[in-house]
From TrEMBL:
Gene3D superfamilies membership: Mitochondrial biogenesis AIM24
Pfam families named among the record's database cross-references: AIM24 (PF01987)
Protein name: AIM24 family protein
Cross-referenced PANTHER family: ALTERED INHERITANCE OF MITOCHONDRIA PROTEIN 24, MITOCHONDRIAL (PTHR38074)
Length: 226
């Protein structure tokens, strides 16, 4: 019975975070190297791993989450292997090398607890959405895992003059140093949603990447507060 299942066995650990297949994240847990992960994302673990929902560090930042952009997080500590997933979504692993990434909270699966993070206003979009749009920014030296509804594409903006346009419902993350602005294609009263005739896009320019998923989620990709 074990032989047909051998191909699904966990591979040897080679990094702090890595994919196990397309839809699961494997994290090598070590004492002193804690993890923040989406509540409910644990599917299995080996060794000794403990969980603390809504830890003090999260509650402190949550006081600034008046925008509603915060995702429920838990603190994971201990030694062993931890497996995370989010309803079969694709998992994207990113190793930040002192840089940062701006992520929609609905796509945030896990990240190293020592990284700097918080909710920030997306500049350049206030005139499209009242007080503006908000996202979660993570920066520093460490690992981040994102989810995507389907296999994503990573667009390199390349630093040229041409802009990259993305439907907000398909947007996962982007380099925070990119310039962002909004563009309306049709009637001004149309905003976001599949029924809007793709009337509103986000335009990115500069040096950096944009991660786009092949699915237009019906939930808010970026929180709007007027």
């Amino acid at each position: 019975m074990n032989q047909p299942l051998a191909g699904y066995a966990p591979a040897p650990v080679t990094a702090r975070m890595e994919n196990h297949g397309h839809h699961m994240l494997k994290v090598a847990m070590q004492t002193g190297n804690d993890l923040l992960a989406r509540v409910g994302s644990m599917v299995a673990y080996e060794g000794f791993v403990q969980y603390e929902p809504n830890p003090p560090a999260v509650r402190q930042i949550a006081r600034d989450w008046i925008t509603g952009e915060g995702a429920p997080l838990m603190k994971c500590t201990g030694d062993g292997l931890l497996y995370l997933a989010d309803y079969g979504a694709n998992v994207v692993v990113i190793n930040l090398n002192g840089d940062g990434i701006s992520v929609n909270a609905t796509n945030l699966l896990a990240f190293d607890a020592h990284l700097s993070w918080g909710v920030e206003r997306v500049k350049g979009l206030a005139k499209f959405a009242g007080q503006g749009l908000w996202n979660t920014r993570i920066s520093g030296q460490g690992w981040v895992a994102l989810t995507s509804r389907g296999e994503p594409i990573v667009v390199d903006c390349g630093g040229g003059e041409d802009e990259t346009y993305v439907d907000p419902d398909a947007l996962v993350a982007w380099s925070p140093n990119l310039k962002v602005k909004g563009k309306r294609s049709f009637k001004a009263q149309s905003l976001i949603g599949r029924g809007s005739g793709e009337a509103y896009q986000m335009a990115f320019s500069g040096q950096g990447i944009v991660v786009v998923q092949p699915s237009e989620d019906s939930t808010d990709r970026i929180r709007i507060r007027g």
